[in-house]
Amino acid sequence: MILAQVLGTVVSTRKDSGLMSLKLLLTREVDATFKPTGNLVVAADAVGAGEGELVLLAQGSSARMTEVSREKPVDAVICGIVDAVEVGGEDAYLKHGRMATPSATPGGARRARTGS
Asked: Is residue 24 part of a domain?
């Protein structure tokens, strides 16, 4: 999976019928400090994500394994909204709090932890 930030919505009035019921969002991969700097990816939204949120992206055949994207012509799906990321026992990202210092992400290691 890939960590990405939702940048906005993609609107397509003419598309394959398999995409008709899907909400498409524009995302960008994030770097070790959780800033959007990577590739732009259009992803189907399976979880109700919104602009600015840090999300989990699944790509390739895994993107077609959610209830929303099953049997659909998608190559990327948002399958989670990130609540926190912990690196080395410290919070590196908190959705409902402050960003931790970038030094908490040595070598760009990123492990996502979703709330339960």
From this structure: yes
We report the CATH number of the domain holding residue 51 as 2.40.50.220
In a domain, 40, yes or no: yes
> Going by C-beta distance under 8 Å and a sequence separation of 6 or more, which residues neighbour residue 103?
none
- Angle at CA of residue 65, ends 63 and 67, nearest 5°: 110
Tell me the pTM: 0.78
Residue 70 belongs to some domain of the structure: yes
9: in domain: yes
The answer to whether the beta carbons of residues 78 and 46 sit under 8 Å apart is yes
Query: Is residue 14 a contact partner of residue 20, using CB atoms and an 8 Å limit?
Result: no
Query: What are the phi and psi torsion angles at 45 (to 5°)?
Result: -100, 115
pLDDT digits (tens, 9 = 90+) for 12-40: 998 888 878 889 999 999 998 899 998 99
